[in-house]
Amino acid sequence: MKSRDLVSSFCAASTLVVFGLARTDSAFASQEKPPAVESPSQAAAVPSPAAPAPGSPVTASPQEKQVSVAEPIELAPGVWAGRTGASNAGWVDLGEGVALIDCGGSEAEGQILKEQIKKTTGGKPVKWVILTHLHGDVSSGLPAFFSKGLTVYVHEKVAPLVKRSLEGKVRGGGEIPVVTGVFDTVTIGGKDRQLEITGLSRPAHSSHDIYAFYPKERVLFSGDLLNPGICPKFTDPDCDPDGWLVALDVLQHENAKSLLGSDGSPRVFVDVEFEITREYMTRILGLLRKAKAAGYPEARISSELHLMKTGSYCPRQRDAFNALSLYRRMTPEGKFTRPATPSSAQPEMP
Fold first, then answer.
1. Residue extents of the structural domains in the chain
2. ∠ Cα 63 338 283 (to 5°)
């Protein structure tokens, strides 16, 4: 079966398997985030229906945030997926405590996750929080988990920035969480239950992506590097789609049997998700490089995308924003420029 056929076969419904029983979980699927323009200094928002005019910045119209909650799903023994607001979170019972991967888009959402974790783990404390990246929709719930002995894992590139930020957020003289920067792979937990945390060596979705893998049950927590049934977002100014393709290879090498991204429903068709995402990225990059080499104006990009017929996997609105975000940063050689100074690319702080 061709990849584009797989898109329609597997992405039409949000199917997951819990202890061998296939089911569709509408609570996760129905709350998919709309096409978003993400920047390190601005939270995601919904773009206007029309594609941006040539030469104009890629911006978005504000929208009132809708907060919704999904009941947690046990993906494997001791492993859960939850959703608050516009993003997913996962947690793993490591015996002596709980490791949380991403933590919601606000402190209120974090508090909801905290209660869900207590109920599903018998009241065990959250001892580790892994932030896959610092976009606000997955990291802003962190203050809800401040407690004695908490360790926060982020990419090594942003660890000093996070440390400084947290010093001003701990209230009433409370203990500041330990912030650990990850570049290669670190392992947390006990002898029988261990979680591996890996930092990528080059930018992908953001400049500072990390992911987590639970080998005992082969569960992969991919952040925004791979969102089941949802096309990638290339609108972060530090996004590097070439690095992202390398990251997909790294993640697929883990040989996971189940997957939780920052968005979309949990999946067990893991290899299918990699294939669909990789094909979309490869096709759109090929189109943009051809257009750049031919000197196409921005106004022509949307029509070229329409002729490309990418199908229902990526909504046309997001497709246009993805393409224009990359095209404006693409050099004639097909490479991508990044913000000129660090100050123009500050990640969002929790």
1. 3-12+25-48+67-342
2. 75
Provide mean pLDDT across the span 113-135: 97
* Identity at 264, one-letter amino acid code: G
- The pLDDT confidence band at residue 33, using thresholds 50, 70 and 90, is very low
Residue 55 has pLDDT above 70, yes or no: no
Instruction: Tell me how far CA of residue 260 lies from CA of 14, 74, 83, 194, 212, in angstroms.
Output: 12, 12, 11, 17, 10
The third-level CATH classification (topology) of the domain covering 3-12+25-48+67-342 is: Metallo-beta-lactamase; Chain A (3.60.15)
In angstroms, the CA 196 to CA 99 distance is 11
pLDDT in tens, 58-79: 333 333 345 578 899 999 999 9
pTM, rounded to two decimals:
0.81
Q: How far, CA to CA in Å, does 153 sit from each of 169, 182, 244, 300, 318?
A: 17, 7, 21, 43, 30
Burial class (CB in 10 A: 0-12, 13-18, 19+), 165: middle
